[in-house]
Amino acid sequence: MDMIRLAIMASGSGSNAQKIMEYFADNKHIKVVCLLSNKPYAYALQRAEKMNIETFVFNRNQFYETPEVENFLTIRKINLVVLAGFLWLVPEKMVRKFKIINIHPALLPEYGGKNMYGMRVHEAVIQNREPFSGITIHHVNEHYDEGNIIFQAKCRVDESDTAESLAEKIHELEHRYYPEVIEKLVSNGL
Ligand code: GAR
């Protein structure tokens, strides 16, 4: 089996990126080749550098108006693009060219869409006194949070939970499942 080559895209801290890079560090079939970010100071970039994974920072113009990001991925023969806390809408031209998946910190289709990301999601879930929240891993299409769902996991939201404590529970689920789901997806032929 040929090596499957992953690119991670992240805008923030990159704790999910970290888990994915660690999980596949010694894998014979799956390799994290590069980490891309739209934020020059994203901590995710430092995490990748520490693990000797190539990084690339791009701006809005490069992403939406030029083929630079696509070319970067094509040259590196990327088979799967993994969004891990990446907050810009992926342009249609990229969605058509690459297989892309995302993780969302709620049970889609609830609490998704433009401006629903990170802590905002958890604040809304707490405000609405939802009994459950969770994570969704899904294919990416040209709309926010609308691609086919690959995997979901649930957690309870307790009366005593705050947006911060809920964020912690969600991060635990994400860290536990995202690498495994990627591995399964690859072993099923993507
Ligand atoms: C994660 O909780 C991820 O689900 C969320 O951002 C966080 C990034 O954390 N993504 C979205 O909200 C996408 N709409 P991390 O940088 O520590 O991996």
The low-confidence runs, each spanning 5 or more residues with pLDDT under 50, are none
Q: Beta-strand level of the residues, as a percent range? A: 15-25%
How does the helix and strand content classify structurally? alpha/beta
Describe the largest sheet.
7 strands, mixed
Describe the global form: globular
Count the helices. How many? 7
Catalogue the ligands.
glycinamide ribonucleotide
User: What is the number of strand segments?
Assistant: 7
Q: What's the Cα radius of gyration? A: 16 Å
The whole-number mean of residue pLDDT values reads 97
How much helical structure, as a percent, in the residues?
A: 25-40%
Short description:
The protein has about 190 residues and is α/β, with parallel strands linked by helices. The chain is about 35% helix and about 25% strand.
Can you lay out the helices and strands and say which pair or pack?
Elements: E1 4-9, H1 15-23, E2 30-37, H2 43-50, E3 54-57, H3 60-65, H4 68-75, E4 80-83, H5 92-97, E5 100-104, H6 119-127, E6 132-139, E7 149-156, H7 163-187
Parallel strand pairs: 1-2, 1-4, 2-3, 4-5
Antiparallel strand pairs: 5-6, 6-7
Helix pairs in contact: 1-7, 6-7
Bound molecules: glycinamide ribonucleotide.
Glycinamide ribonucleotide is lined by residues 10, 12-16, 84-85, 103-105, 117-118, 170-171, 174.
Key words describing this protein structure:
alpha/beta, 23% strand, 37% helix, Rossmann fold, binds glycinamide ribonucleotide, 7-stranded mixed beta sheet
Q: How would you sum up this structure, described in words?
A:
The protein has 190 residues and is of the alpha/beta class. The protein has one domain: Rossmann fold (3-Layer(aba) Sandwich), CATH 3.40.50. Helices cover 37% and strands 23% of the residues. It has helices spanning 15-23, 43-50, 60-65, 68-75, 92-97, 119-127, 163-187; strands spanning 4-9, 30-37, 54-57, 80-83, 100-104, 132-139, 149-156. Strands 3-2-1-4-5-6-7 form a 7-stranded mixed beta sheet, with helices on one face. Helix 6 packs across helix 7 (163-187). It is globular. The two termini are 13 Å apart. The site of glycinamide ribonucleotide has 16 residues, from helix 1, strand 5 and helix 7.
